[in-house]
Every structure is written in C-alpha cells, then in structure tokens.
C-alpha cells in the first residue's frame, strides 16, 4: 500500500515525511518537489514566516541515481526558523485553533499543540504529493489546483485545456484562473489585514487522464470519493469538500445532474475507452470509482484563526477574561491551500493507482495498465 506519515513541529529542526510503498523505477526530480514547495510559500497575503523560509526538499532514502528503489522514501525540509527550545508557552488560547482543547486533552502546554497543529506541517504533505505526481505523470495523469473564490469574490473558471488553465494560474498572484481579478482581490487582502482581520476562500483541483476503475464500490472505507474527502478535509482550516456539483446537486432535478453516457469509437484507444460524457457533474467519480472523466474537487478554507484584532479568550493561569494571544500570522493563505489540496489529492490518486496496478515496479504497473485497458476494450 502506498502511504505516508509526517513528523515535525512548526519551529522544530525539520519536517519529515516517510513515504512507503512507492514503486521502483520512477525517475524522481527533486526540483519538481521544490517548485511545489515554492508555490506553497507564495500567493498574496502570507506573513513573515514565508520570508524566512526558502523550502527545499532533501531526499534522505529510497532513491538511487534519481530513480526510486521501491524502498521507503524519507523526505526532509529543514526549518530555517528553528527556535522551538527558546519559545515560551502561551497562556491565552486562540479561538479557531487547537490551543484550548489540545492543552486540556494532553494536560500540557499550548505550545506543544500549536507547533504540531500548524499548517507548516503541510510542507511535507506537499512534498509527498509532488513525489506522487511524478508517478502519475508516467500514466498521463495531470493534476492542477487553483483558487475559485477569495473573501467572497468569485473568480471565473474558463472552459480551457489543462495547459491553458495552468498558464492562467501561473500568471495570477492569487493562483486563480482569472488574473484580471488580482488587483481587486489584493486590495481586499490589504484592507482586511490593515483592519486586523483575515480571509478565507474556495479552492478547486482537477485531475485529468484518469483511467476507469480507481477506487471501488465494494467497501465503504475504500471508496475513492470518501478517501479524497478525508485527505482534503484533514488539511488545516479546510471546512468543506465537494466533488463535482457537490451541494449544488441537491438543488437540481436528476435530469440536470446525472451525466449521459455516449460512445465515440474514435476515442477507443484513450483512457476513456471511447465512453464520453457531455457533462461532468459527477466530478469523475461514480460509486467510489473513477469513470474516465476528470476528477473535480472543491474545498472551502476558513479565514486564518489568529487575528491581530484579537477575539475574546481566557487567561488559563488566572481564569480571567483576556484577549487571545497573537502569534505571527498570515492574513490570507487561500492560494497556499490550493497547492496543498492539489498535492494531497495527487497522493490519494497515486495510492488508488498502485492499488489497481501494483506497486512493485513502474514497468510492471505499466504492463498491467496496458493489459487492463485492452481487456476493458474487449469485455
Ligand atoms: C496554508 C495555510 C496557512 C495557514 N497559516 C495560518 C497562520 O498563519 N495563522 C493561523 O492562525 N492559522 C493558519 N492556518 C490555519 C490553522 O493551521 C488551522 O486553522 C488550525 O491549525 C486549526 O485547525 P482547523 O482549522 O483545521 O480546525 C493556516 C492554514 C493553511 C492551510
């Protein structure tokens, strides 16, 4: 099984991801991982931390001559802002963080909770996802994430190819597909920051080139829609996940929701096997399995919890009312969230891919992939 776990504190020495079950024979370019790490640090509205860190990955194991060995891959990102041993504890828990609940649950300091709950941990989730993308690319599967709404301002999503969408996204400081809206959104971020407040938004990820049959209908915890929702919901500050039409499907009639099935013999050799859908309201998943259409996932990110204009809190030493503590913080991290969500989805899709086609080696996976496509055409 392809899986990963992470370790590390926000101001500790380093962040680590241990990736298990990654197939042998995949060419790995650490610069692809670094590029995703750089994008995670960007976007308009980030705080001082991103000026201190210039994240790059160290691949500590599992790769030889830029090729995966099939053994565990350890990824490390060093924290330049290492100062954990010198930091004091907090006494006034911040609403919207795990400060109060974690300190009570673990009967310990708030510092111990916030250092691990911090979204700094997503650095290595992005690294693991960017590693997984290099496997997906071998099968023509591409992943793209972008911002569709920020602080209530909706951004247009054009009907365009993935490459065109990527060009638009990379031209936007917000990481939206509507760069013309950047000035309006940046102004909103600036004004909100000056007022001591923060902003949230909605991000979308598209995965193209998926074959039929990743995931399964057969058992609840193996359904790919559920697994993607779990991975995305587990990103810090994500409070809602939609696949395809999502909540909008509940407002429409069935005839306006379900995607008709057509057949186009000229596309028989492609990943769709010729089964074309004039719409993709299902967002690429039916009964927990990929259906050959692009996977479309949206996630809602709440505004940053730490406010310069602090909310009410309680001093845990005196139990007297006091304003919540302020720790250096972003005003808006929706752009960064689009990068994180995109990469955690990439990892889940890669996991489903190796479940279907095996994870010993890339050559065997490719042979099994080709055999499956052939058998599916002949069934
Ligand atoms: C990319 C990213 C950056 C974040 N930066 C901050 C930040 O600077 N300050 C802050 O208070 N919360 C920040 N958060 C949100 C907190 O990590 C998160 O709200 C908190 O850990 C509580 O978890 P929950 O919102 O999932 O319940 C960030 C989240 C993401 C995804």
TrEMBL record:
Tell me which CDD domains the record gives: Chorismate_synthase
The free-text note explaining how the cofactor binds reads: Reduced FMN (FMNH(2)).
* Single annotated GO MF: chorismate synthase activity
Q: Which cofactor does it need?
A: FMNH2
What are the binding positions for NADP(+) in this chain? Answer: 40, 46
Q: What is its EC number?
A: 4.2.3.5
- State the function annotated in the UniProt record: This reaction introduces a second double bond into the aromatic ring system.
| Classification of source organism | Bacteria, Pseudomonadati, Planctomycetota, Planctomycetia, Pirellulales
Indicate the family of this protein: Belongs to the chorismate synthase family.
**Can you name this protein?**
Chorismate synthase
Give the UniProt keywords, A-Z.
Amino-acid biosynthesis, Aromatic amino acid biosynthesis, FAD, Flavoprotein, FMN, Lyase, NADP
């Amino acid at each position: 099984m392809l899986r990963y776990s992470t370790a590390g504190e926000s101001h500790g020495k380093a962040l680590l991801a241990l990736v298990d079950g990654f197939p042998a024979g995949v060419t790995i370019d650490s610069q692809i991982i670094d590029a995703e790490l750089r994008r995670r640090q960007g976007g308009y509205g980030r705080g001082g931390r991103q000026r201190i860190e210039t994240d790059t990955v160290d691949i500590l194991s599992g790769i030889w001559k830029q090729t995966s060995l099939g053994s565990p891959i350890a990824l490390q990102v060093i924290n330049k802002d290492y100062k954990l041993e010198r930091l004091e504890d907090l006494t006034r828990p911040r609403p919207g963080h795990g400060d109060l609940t974690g300190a009570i649950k673990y009967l310990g300091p708030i510092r111990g909770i916030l250092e691990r709950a911090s979204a700094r941990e997503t650095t290595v989730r992005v690294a693991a996802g960017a590693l997984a993308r290099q496997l997906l690319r071998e099968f023509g599967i591409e992943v793209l994430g972008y911002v569709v709404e920020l602080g209530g301002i909706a951004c247009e999503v054009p009907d365009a190819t993935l490459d065109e969408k990527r060009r638009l996204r990379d031209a936007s400081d917000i990481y939206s597909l509507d760069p013309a809206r950047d000035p309006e959104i940046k102004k909103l971020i600036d004004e909100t920051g000056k007022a001591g407040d923060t902003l949230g938004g909605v991000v979308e990820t598209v995965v193209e080139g998926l074959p039929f049959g990743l995931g399964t209908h057969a058992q609840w915890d193996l359904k790919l829609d559920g697994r993607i929702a779990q991975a995305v919901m587990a990103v810090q500050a994500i409070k809602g996940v939609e696949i395809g039409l999502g909540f909008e499907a509940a407002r429409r009639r069935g005839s306006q929701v379900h995607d008709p099935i057509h057949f186009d013999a000229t596309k028989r050799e492609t990943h769709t096997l010729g089964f074309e859908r004039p719409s993709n309201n299902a967002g690429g998943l039916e009964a927990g399995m990929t259906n050959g259409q692009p996977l479309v996932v949206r996630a809602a990110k709440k505004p940053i919890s730490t406010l310069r204009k602090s909310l009410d809190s309680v001093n845990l030493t005196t139990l007297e009312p006091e304003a919540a503590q302020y720790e250096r913080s972003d005003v808006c991290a929706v752009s960064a969230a689009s990068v994180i969500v995109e990469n955690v989805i990439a990892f889940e899709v890669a996991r489903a891919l190796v479940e279907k086609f095996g994870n010993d080696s890339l050559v065997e996976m490719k042979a099994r992939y080709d055999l499956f496509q052939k058998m599916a055409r002949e069934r």
